[in-house]
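#struct-pred

JT: dropping the chains for the assembly here, can someone run the whole complex?
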Amino acid sequence: MNSVPVIQPAAAACEACPAHNAANLLRLGVNVNDCDYVVALAGNPNTGKSTVFNALTGLRQHTGNWPGKTVTRAEGAYSYGQKRYKIVDLPGTYSLLSTTLDEEVARDFILFGQPDVTVVVVDATRLERNLNLVLQVLEITDRAVLGLNLMDEARRHKLQVDDRRLARDLGIPVVPMSARRGEGIPDLLRTVHEVATGATVCNPHRLQSEPAGLKRAVAQLVAQINAVYPGLPNARWVAMRLLDGDQRIIDAMQRGELGDLALRQNLEPAAQAALEPA
Amino acid sequence: MSTVMPTAEDILAGAETLRWSAGVNFHEQLVEAIYTDAARLTDRAVTRPDSPLRFDFDRTVDKLVTSRWFGFPLMLLMLATVFYITIVGANVPSALISDLLIGIIHPLLKQGSAALGVPFFIDGLLIDGMYLGSAWVVAVMLPPMMIFFPLFTLLEDFGYLPRVAFNLDAIFRKSGAHGKQALTMAMGWGCNAAGVVATRIIDSPRERLIAIITNNFALCNGRWPTQIMIATVFIGVLAPPGWGGLVSALAVVGVAVLGILITFASSFLLSRTVLKGEVSTFSLELPPYRPPRIWQTIYTSIIDRTIIVLWRAVMWALPAGALIWLAGNVNVSGLSIAEHLIQFLNPAGLVLGLNGVILLAYILAIPANEIVIPTVLMLTALSAKMAGVGAGAGVMFDAESDAQLAQLFAAGGWTLLTAVNLMLFSLLHNPCSTTIHTIYKETRSAKWTTVAALMPLLLGFVVTFVVAQLWRLVAAG
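RK: done, full complex below.
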């Protein structure tokens, strides 16, 4: 552990000790009743979402080193700081702009399920590609935490990732972790708790590089959407999808279910069934 | 809702107009904006090593395992090694467990029930039927699974499976199927029901159906033990002493590879006939090699896979053991029910180079492939009426060594042809009921579920029939 540059050796040793977690974390397995907060786990394929999920819930979702392993939503629960959390492990996606079934499961949950916190798990050794998804998630939700996973791999490849600068730039908390070794999990728990309870307020990065014409069009449409659905939290994202001609969002709007869908997904744990092909 | 409708239409109309003002290539502009931001943020946060590493482990290994010339041989070598270790390593613990459960505990139970004066039919049903049935499942399946699953999971953890997919991708596309089908097939090597669910990663419904229908040609957890055992008893003994394990391993690899070839062939046929259409493209990310966490992997693969598969097998073996005991002990016009059924199925079985026992076992094993081997053993003992091996009709017996198994099969009229065709039929028959149910849940189509259930069975009949005829022709000539 002496060669570890990013996490201090002392902290790593503490985290590896079972007593460190035992006091605060109570793994609740599949018992998702009466939860105070809902946490979504998103991220590119094969970044360790299921490993984080298992570490938090004590469940044993099958993990494997290959992309596309989780295709459905898996749910579990834990309790931390006197609050009960439901945690939803979403299928890995590169983007929220396409329409394959597994990507839709992820997108619809973040968009309509309105989780209290969305944890985006990223591969520290492939940060640039992973950030493409993070930026899209940050267009949808304000309350996000970046799980900078596979820091052990980054170290092995002699990469240095400045998590503080990343946190400042993205406007959300960034937690460096090596989930397979259990490093960073206590930090993640605390950070999720702070964001869920509102102790930490995020100020997420919004796209800056889009051309002026596009910016104007989005702004105009957002104004219209806000007039019809006041309080819709992701009007900007909905506007972009409408401009892009996303049929699913257009349908949702035509049927007037854009507002309802949020409600429904929260009430119905098996809402995923509705997303399966007819 | 009615007040919302017109306004929602307004928004859509507004979007329609604005789309033109923003330029037609909205999607590209958006994606480009995202990429630009991501690149800028990454540049600020990541410091790369000044000089590139002299030796890039991942790239070197990838060059080798996905190479044109070494890719496939390495894949076969890897599979053969896994099976070799499994077959050779399972022998000793298998004998130990069977000594304990069947050689020691079973007689004790019998003595106990005799001392208590338990009526023979209860004693028979519980101890000779249910207990022995489950004991057999544990003795036959546990040791190979405890070796095979951790080894396979280690390969998976290391990151080898996507490389297999990479190697197979071109062939899948030539077959008119989706390249990702290689991944769902690899998932099917664990469990076909899981493989069918995994086809959700394929977006085109046409290609997804092909992947679902052909997933059954990937040998699953429940079928590996059948392959391993039959290969050990029949094919391994043909080899010179000391080479048995290797030859058996190669035989199992041969059947697995045959499954892959049949997957290609049937995908090809489906995509040229009832499921015509374009092949979609995709990019497959080769994940980095990660050093597997060995102890963790061994622990979880034993807990998650071995125990679950074993539990499922035992749960089905309990009622099946009872049923077989009853069938072997309830007589109708002088013969037991089981013998009636076996005699009824025997002509059909023999034409296919199998026998009535195997067909009956496969009918009983529709819920779970795991119980094929115990059922076959039990029914063979019954039909061969081997005095002195078991304690009575329909009772499973102590056959701890491969030699004793071979002796039993010989008494049941088995030949090398029976064994080969059983291995083929184990590869080519209907999926288990769990998988069929999953296929229906995923496709919501009774038609495609029926196709997926019956096509492999039909293929199994055809293949075993042809092999049997050719075999007999050669044997006669």
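JT: nice. Chain A has a mean pLDDT of 77. The CA atoms of residues 14 and 66 of chain A lie 31 Å apart.
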